[in-house]
Amino acid sequence: MSKCSMHLNFLLVLLFCCVSPASFDLLLENLVVGLVACSPGQIQALTQLKNEFDTRGCNHSDNSNGVWCDNSTGGITKLQLSDCLSGTLKPNSSLFSLHDLRYLNLSENNFSSSSLPSEFRNLKKLEVLSLSSNGFLGQVPSSFSNLNKLSVLSLSDNDLTGSFPLVRNLTKLVLLDLSDNHFSGPLNPKSALFELHQLRDLFLSNNNFSSSLSSEFGKLSNLEVLYLPSNGFSGQVPPTISNLTKLKVLRLSDNHFSGTLAPNSGLFELHELRFLMLDYNNFSSSLPSEFGNLNNLEFLYLTFNLFSGQIPPTISNLTSLVELFLDGNELTGSFPLVWNLTKLSMLDLSDNHFSGTLNPNSGLFELHDLRYLNLGYNNFSSKLPSEFGNLSILEVLSLESNSFTGDIPLSICTISSLFGLVLSYNNFTGQIPRCLSKIAFVNLRENNLEGRLPDNFYVDASVQTLDVGRNQLVGKLPKSLINCSSLRVLVVDHNRIKDTFPFWLKALSNLKVFILRSNDFYGSISPPDQGPLGFPELRILEISDNSFTGSLPPNYFLNWKASSPTPNEDGGLYMAYNKTAYAPIFYTYTDVLDLQYKGISMGQEKILTFYAAIDFSGNKLEGQIPESIGHLKALIALNLSNNTFTGHIPLSLANVTELESLDLSSNHLSGTIPNGLASLSFLEYINVSHNQLKGEIPQGTQFSGQAESSFEGNAGLCGLPLQETCFGSNAPPTQQPNDEDEEEEVQVLSWKAVAFGYGAGMLLGLTIAQVIASFKPDVFL
């Protein structure tokens, strides 16, 4: 439901209680059937309107579409056609002959090639006009100001431009929504906006408005919703905001507001406020104790500002508070007293400088409605209290990057609703609790945990991401992991796990990231039948710094069936998963990598959905590098360094067109460097040092920009960037791929990049060291 739909529905009751609705076919094929109350002329106009557009895409499920006519005059007073019409809304459309219209909703259609016709001025009786989500272009015609009966005007989610539109005569407006467009410029103090004294709801989010907020906002004394996020507003909140005594929602997020929130700023006189969102700005100073005056406040978002000092004790006066987000500031002190905040459902104090213990006397463990708790990136210490088990409906617990010690309390296992547990980067000791199977996202990275991974993962266990890297775990990988059919990310690097390669994990059809780096794994990584490795959906395989041995069969990289990675539901670039909590909240969980890019460590980078990498470095692998490597056509990073591979560099590597990083150093490779590698336009880093290569280094941007050290230790190599010249030498020519190599087609792992326009290096990601989890909730009003 849109943010203005409640207002629209309420107005319908008032405006149309004396008119009769007529049936309306969503395909408009039987438009005239059943329109008993409509005059013949109006029916004819509707028929003409149908013929002006392509209606084959009409949404059959939208029962709100329809036509209403006045019983006495036969004139059409209400018309709603949402998600139905495709084409250009022309100035001579029959729509503009429907002069009795009082309600018109044409939202979510496809008028993408249209500007807003000035002929809307003909519909002088309009009281509600919704044209949102249509793709309208250009500026709002000045003739819109002639619609002086309008009480609701929604032009949101289009491609409209220009300055704030002319609204001088629209004095009856109750709701104005211009959000999600490209309007720009200041809100001039002389603007007619500040003459709209009946205005209750104002939505201007996601535009390019700039300048400071005018003190004239104080004239809009009937405002209940002021929604201005994601613009370029700056300066301080004007003191005249105290005149908006009916204000219930104030959202100024993601702008450039700055300065202090002084006790006399006027903000703390808005006693009806329920939503206050000032996140992602540059507000500074300490938090005023006057926040305690806003005793009707339910949602307080101050995320990512520059607030400092301690949380004032008066915060406990906010007994109606449901969500409190203070993360990303410079706040200090101990955990605040929250005894009175019994309705609190979400609490985020992460990324501050809080310290001390989580004292049960703070009231934290009496918050029985708490679902989300994030205290990460602070300086909390001591053991975790067993009272965490009191938070019986907790869904996400994130305590990463603190100094917690001791065992992970078993009482956490009693929280049956828990699906996100992030305890990474602390000093926890002892063994891993045996309740991991029921938690979807588990990150215990970089602690001092010991013992074995629990071997009690039941069939269809909930776990999707399991990161236990950088601990002191021993033993083998538990065979019960085979039951985790939803497992997508498995990270056990930098432990002391001693086992053979777990070919049996190929049965996990959703596994995308598999990292075994720096353990005591041993033996062959070739399947017993000497066939392809064949993990069905794997995108990142990292087994470096173990004791794997043997050679790779020629077809090792065939039949890796993962095609182009499926994009996220939200179309985002990064590997992330959404989980609905309770309306209107859902959590976004993002996997993050520690990377080594051109030998430089880069911590906690998000994983692009099309990222694909292989790292077999630091083992005892031998034999030739299989030519089938060339079938991984969208591989981005390949590291086979520090093994004992022999033979030539595969000519087929020239087919790996998305490759950005190639490290074959410290092997026993011979022959020449294939000239085809010079055609890899994204290749930014190459290292073939300390082999037995000879001949001229291929010339091209990809090679000439490399460091000399990338080719050293090959006595027979010559040409730039080395000092040795090939002039007059007997160096053999570089190898060229023949037609048979170029045309070979077999079933392959087609890790195809989603976006081909990225420059070299944009995709990041070379040697993967870890995957960690990140939770953030998203809120929709």
From TrEMBL:
UniProt KW keywords: Glycoprotein, Leucine-rich repeat, Membrane, Receptor, Repeat, Signal, Transmembrane, Transmembrane helix
Signal peptide residue numbers: 1-24
Transmembrane segments: none
Keyword Repeat: yes
Domain Disease resistance R13L4/SHOC-2-like LRR: from-to ranges: 79-178
Gene3D superfamilies: Ribonuclease Inhibitor
Main location: membrane
SUPFAM superfamilies: L domain-like, RNI-like
Membrane topology: Single-pass type I membrane protein
Subcellular location: Membrane
Designated name of the protein: Disease resistance R13L4/SHOC-2-like LRR domain-containing protein
Pfam families listed in its UniProt record: LRR_1, LRR_14
InterPro entries xref list: Leu-rich_rpt, Leu-rich_rpt_typical-subtyp, LRR_dom_sf, LRR_R13L4/SHOC2-like
